Amino acid sequence: MTRSLKKGLYVDERLIQKIKNKKPGDRAPIKTWSRASVISPEMIGFTFAVHNGKIFVSVLVNEEMVGHRLGEFSPTRKFTRHGGKMQKEIEMAAKQKEVEASKAAKTSPASK
Predict the structure, then answer these.
(1) How far, in Å, are 42, 70, 104 from residue 62 at the CA level?
(2) 65: closest CA among 30, 33, 40?
(3) Phi, psi of 81 (to 5 degrees)
(4) CA-CA distances (angstroms) from residue 84 to 88, 97, 98, 104?
(5) Domain 13-73, what fold?
(6) Which of 59, 68, 49 is CA-nearest to residue 9?
(7) Per-residue confidence of the chain (112 residues) as pLDDT tens digits?
(8) Which class for 110: exposed (0-12), middle (13-18), buried (19 or more C-beta within 10 A)?
(9) What does the domain layout of the chain look like in residue ranges?
């Protein structure tokens, strides 16, 4: 556990102030760099723009997110894909099969 129970959960004070100044129906995102801040019940319904190191990712808070941290919903790494040359060959073969199947589907109804 990263924080002891006697200290309580970490919620950034500036975020609480920004939430108090906004109306609940306001959809304008609240910009924050505080990825370690825990989502509290007061944050439900608000949109946060959480910084991931490069851009701000929009996060709409709902009930299931309470207790998690803001940074969990703003990934810092972009997954491209696994593989290299072999993976590319497999994908090309699958694409070729798909093209052939679509050509076969087009020609079979026309011949009937």
Answers:
(1) 10, 12, 47
(2) 40
(3) 180, 165
(4) 6, 20, 21, 30
(5) 30s Ribosomal Protein S19; Chain A (3.30.860)
(6) 68
(7) 566 778 888 999 999 999 999 886 677 999 999 999 999 999 998 999 999 999 999 999 999 999 999 999 999 998 877 777 888 888 899 999 999 988 888 887 655 5
(8) exposed
(9) 13-73
- Which amino acid appears at position 82 of this protein? H
- 40 contacts 11 by C-beta, under 8 angstroms: yes
What is the chain's percent helix, strand, coil content, to nearest 5? 40, 15, 45
Structure tokens at 13: 């004070």
